[in-house]
Amino acid sequence: MVQRLAMLSAATLLLAAAATAPAKESARSVAGHVTKVDPSAKTLTVREDGTTEAAHEMTFEVLSGARIIAAGKPEKLVQLRQGDAVTVKYIERNGKSIAERIDVAKAPSPTSPSHGQTKR
């Protein structure tokens, strides 16, 4: 009887531990264009490619460990601009999207000459 009670208690503890353990975080990815950068809040908002609706925008927390890479070189969140094409690899944690890596293709600057034009 004591042995059965001990086994039942152990099984209950194992089930309780499994229920309270955090779910394994799997990496996800989204490609789109930057619509907003807020360095003070450490957030980046991206509109997914192929969408025009705000409903398809995602806001990511960009923590200090996140890697931001443009042209193979590290960048800071403050260097990102509206219109930059990005691919964000992220995880979901406590209902928030946390960016782990942001690969950036810079939007052309308004002062750069257009392709195919020659300088005079």
Radius of gyration computed on alpha carbons = 23 Å
Distance N to C terminus = 96 Å
As for the CATH topology of the domain at 28-105, it is OB fold (Dihydrolipoamide Acetyltransferase, E2P)
Give helix % range.
Answer: 10-25%
Q: How many beta-strand segments? A: 6
Which secondary-structure class do the elements indicate?
alpha+beta
H/E element order? HEEEEEE
Named CATH architecture of the domain at 28-105: Beta Barrel
Task: Describe the global form.
Answer: globular
Percentage of β-strand residues = 35-45%
Explain how this protein is built:
- By secondary structure, this protein is of the alpha+beta class.
- It has a domain at 28-105: Copper binding periplasmic protein CusF (OB fold (Dihydrolipoamide Acetyltransferase, E2P)).
- It is 16% helix and 43% strand.
- It contains one helix and six strands; from the N terminus they run αββββββ.
- A five-stranded mixed beta barrel has the order 1-2-3-6-5.
- The model is unreliable at 115-120 (pLDDT under 50).
- It has one helix at residues 2-20; strands at 28-38, 43-48, 57-70, 73-74, 85-93, 96-105.
- The longest helix has 19 residues, at 2-20.
Show the helix and strand layout.
Layout: H1 2-20, E1 28-38, E2 43-48, E3 57-70, E4 73-74, E5 85-93, E6 96-105
Parallel strand pairs: 3-6
Antiparallel strand pairs: 1-2, 1-5, 2-3, 3-4, 5-6
Annotation keywords:
about 120 residues, OB fold (Dihydrolipoamide Acetyltransferase, E2P), five-stranded mixed barrel, about 15% helix, globular
Structure, briefly:
This protein is of the alpha+beta class and 120 residues long. The chain has one helix spanning 2-20, and strands at residues 28-38, 43-48, 57-70, 73-74, 85-93, 96-105. The chain has a domain at 28-105: Beta Barrel (OB fold (Dihydrolipoamide Acetyltransferase, E2P)).
